Amino acid sequence: MEKENWPITPPWRGRRLRRTEALRELVAETRLSPQGLIYPLFVVEGKRQKQEISSMPGIYRLSPDLLPQEIEEVAALDIHAVLLFGLPEVKDEKGSQAYHPRGVTQQAIRAIKKSHPDMVVACDVCLCEYTSHGHCGVVANGKVDNDSTLELLAQTALSQVQAGADVVAPSAMMDGQVATIREKLDEAGFTSTPIMAYAAKYASAFYGPFREAAASAPQFGDRRSYQMDPANAREALHELEQDVAEGADIIMVKPALAYLDIVSQARSMFSLPLAAYNVSGEYAMVKAAARLGWIDEKRAILEIITSIKRAGADIIISYHAKEVARWLKE
Fold first, then answer.
1. In terms of residue numbers, what domain contains 83?
2. What is the pLDDT of residue 222?
């Protein structure tokens, strides 16, 4: 277009509302709050145990006796929910410590609810941290057996709720896990306990640091036969739809950052609360780059969390949760 055809004054200048910090905050379309964050915690057996995870700087495995102090810090930041992962001392082929009434996760739940009864305690429901082979279910003839795993997942969820858990979060990606858990909880009288389903959980390379943190790496093969193929988007929507039909109260996409398109599509398709998991590899990459001075850590983290929220997530599970909450209070 010839220059003389442009109006002398553009009718709209985007820069008008970007001029100052106050103006930018006034018109911000996406807003973060600590109340929308869930902080994951790794729990180990014993006492006075605080073990830093080498691939996740600033994240620790804690014994149950140290959890009240950690929860005090979390609560002071206005974060109202945590997600527990347990690491037992003894593992077996059927992950029996996952559903033992005095298992490490059950101990952790009781310790938190005794000291901070208002903290929402969500628990991961899977067998990978508890099995000697590291897979998410029962192994038969060298393969993970979907149907024989379902009852063990349901027993795990029930034992967690009996210990005081507020939310159960099945992550094993076994077909029918939500329906089986819902039935088990309802039969036991826990009809009010919500299920936060890892509905679209991809077989992602971004889980590497978590495998160290939870000591849950498979001893053979991988998890691609039951976790989702990163190439597939329509299948994710079908998985989400299935978990909604089975009785999920909250649906989740994992990982978050590489799957923002799935988060966005899920938000458009479903009205249930939507969670997204900002996973260990996403956390570790930021920390590594920041240590090398390659990025502005605070700005990068806030940009990532904002992008997940902007894509449509109501709930963000993140190892950055405490950092983000502190910055939001500044």
1. 33-329
2. 66
Q: How many domains does the chain have?
A: 1
| Assigned domain for 10 exists | no
CA–CA distance, 82 with 59 (Å, rounded to integer):
14
CATH number at residue 209: 3.20.20.70
Per the annotation, the verdict on 201 as an active-site residue is yes
Question: Is the CB of residue 312 less than 8 Å from the CB of residue 238?
Answer: no
Q: Is 0.90 topped by the overall pTM?
A: yes
What is the per-residue pLDDT across 254-270, written as a single tens digit (0 to 9) for each?
A: 999 999 999 999 999 99
Residue 249 lies in a domain: yes
What DSSP element (H or E) covers 60? strand 60-62
- Is residue 27 included in any domain, yes or no? no
CA separation for the pair 310, 125 (Å, rounded): 28
Q: Is 113 among the catalytic positions? A: no
What average pLDDT does range 193-199 have in this prediction? 97
Task: Give the C-alpha separation, 196 to 203, whole Å.
Answer: 19
CA distance 240 to 221: 26
Of 201, 287, 309, 322, which residue is the catalytic one? 201
DSSP string over 75-132:
HHTT--EEEEEEE-S--BTT-GGGS-TTSHHHHHHHHHHHH-TTSEEEEEE-STTTBT
**Burial class, 308, CB count within 10 angstroms (exposed 0-12 / middle 13-18 / buried 19+):** buried
Q: Which residue has the tokens 């009718």?
A: 11
Q: What is the pLDDT of residue 112?
A: 98
- State the Cα–Cα distance between residues 187 and 316, nearest whole angstrom: 31
Tell me the mean pLDDT in the region 46-51: 95
What pLDDT, on a 0 to 100 scale, did the predictor assign at position 325?
A: 98
Phi first, then psi, for residue 275 (nearest 5°) are -110, 155
Nearest by Cα to 85 from 48, 116, 40, 55: 40
Q: Considering the candidates 254, 287, 309, 322, report the single residue annotated as catalytic.
A: 254
DSSP 173: -
